[in-house]
Design a protein that fits this description.
- It is built from seven helices and 13 strands.
- Helix 4 (124-135) packs parallel to helix 5.
- The strands form three sheets. The chain has a nine-stranded mixed β-sheet, sandwiched between helices.
- It starts with 9 loop residues before the first helix and ends with a helix.
- It has helices at 10-18, 44-57, 73-76, 124-135, 154-160, 250-253, 256-269, and strands at residues 33-37, 62-65, 81-85, 89-90, 119-120, 139-142, 162-166, 171-177, 191-195, 199-202, 209-214, 227-236, 239-244.
- The protein has a domain at 30-99 and 116-163 and 230-269: 3-Layer(aba) Sandwich (Rossmann fold), CATH 3.40.50.
- Strand 1 (33-37), helix 2 and strand 2 form a beta-alpha-beta unit.
- It is globular.
- It is an alpha/beta fold.
Length: 273
C-alpha cells in the first residue's frame, strides 16, 4: 500500500477545475523527505541503502545529504519530513578511521598525526530551524545516535525530546512496546537485535514513550541497569516527533518488526496513520 492516498477525489478535482479553482492537470503534491545522514562512526552508504528500502516501501521521495552546514530554515522549506541519523560531532583535524583504535599505533608517521579531536556542529539557529519546522507542521524522525546532537543544542533537544547518554559494545538486546498504546507499536511483538543499545535521557511526558530496550542477559551499563527508553512519539505544535534508538547496523534496521515500526513512524509523522 502506498504511503499517502489523496483525500481529494477525482470528481472533486474535476469540479474544482471546471470552476477555475485548479488547473485540469493538478494533483495533490506528494510529501518529500530530507535525510541528514552519516558521521565518523556511521557510514552514510549503509544508512542510505537501509533507508532507500524504507522510502521505496512507502513510495515516498527522499533527498539525502551529509552537509551539516547546509541545514537551515530555508533548506527545510520544501520538505514535510526531516530524518536525521548521525551524531553531533565533526572532526576538522581528521582521523584515521571510524574504528582506528587498534591501528593508530602502527602509523608510520604517528608522531606527525594529530590526536583526533571533535567539535559539535549544530548551532542554536539550526536547532531553532528544526523546532520551527516541526512546530509549523513538519514531521521529525531522529534515529539512533541523533540523540547525541541534543548535547550541544537546547533548541534541538527541546523538539527532539531527550539526549544521548552512552552505549555498551554491540550485544544482543530485546526491544518491546511499552504499556503506552500507540498506532506505531500496535500489535507488535518483542524482537531481538545485535546492535548498540543506546541509553538515553528522556525529557518529556512518560506517556509518550512507546519502546523500551532491555538486555535479557542481565548486562547493565554505567549504573543504568538493563533497560532504557528506546522510542517515543508525540505532537509538537502543529507537527510530530518520533525517535527510535536502534540503528547501528543494517541487519538491525531491517529486522522485520523494526522495519514495520519505521514505516509506521513515517506514516504517523505525515499524519497518514
Amino acid at each position: 500500500m502506498k504511503l499517502l492516498q489523496s483525500p481529494i477525489s477525482r470528481r472533486t478535482m474535476m469540479a474544482a477545475s471546471a470552476a477555475g479553482l485548479l488547473p485540469a492537470h493538478a494533483v495533490p503534491a506528494k510529501p518529500r523527505a530530507l535525510a541528514l545522514i552519516g558521521d565518523r562512526y556511521h557510514n552514510p552508504d549503509y544508512i542510505r541503502v537501509s533507508l532507500d528500502r524504507l522510502f521505496q516501501a512507502l513510495n515516498l521521495p527522499v533527498d539525502y545529504t551529509i552537509d551539516t552546514a547546509g541545514l537551515s530554515a530555508a533548506a527545510l522549506k520544501p520538505y514535510r519530513l526531516l530524518l536525521i541519523l548521525r551524531d553531533g560531532m565533526l572532526w576538522p583535524g581528521g582521523y584515521s578511521g571510524p574504528d582506528a583504535y587498534g591501528y593508530e599505533p602502527d602509523l608510520e608517521n604517528k608522531d606527525e598525526w594529530p590526536a583526533a579531536q571533535s567539535v559539535m556542529w549544530m548551532t542554536e539557529d539550526q536547532g531553532k530551524a528544526i523546532r520551527d519546522f516541526v512546530g509549523n507542521g513538519g514531521g521529525f524522525y531522529p534515529l539512533h545516535n541523533a540523540s547525541h546532537i541534543s548535547l550541544s543544542s537546547k533548541n534541538y533537544r527541546d523538539v527532539m525530546g531527550g539526549a544521548y547518554f552512552g552505549h555498551p559494545p554491540l550485544r544482543p538486546f530485546e526491544v518491546h512496546a511499552t504499556a503506552n498504546a500507540h498506532p506505531i507499536t500496535a500489535g507488535m511483538t518483542p524482537f531481538t537485535v545485535n546492535d548498540e543499545q543506546h541509553y538515553v535521557d528522556y525529557d518529556k511526558d512518560p506517556g509518550y514513550v512507546i519502546l523500551e530496550s532491555e538486555n535479557r542477559d542481565g548486562l547493565t551499563y554505567n549504573g543504568r541497569g538493563t533497560k532504557s527508553p528506546a522510542g517515543w512519539a508525540y505532537d509538537y505544535g502543529k507537527g510530530r516527533v518520533v525517535f527510535t534508538a536502534v540503528g547501528h547496523t543494517i541487519h538491525a534496521m531491517w529486522n522485520p518488526q523494526y522495519f514495520e515500526v519505521q514505516k509506521r513512524a513515517v506514516r504517523w509523522l505525515l499524519k497518514d496513520l
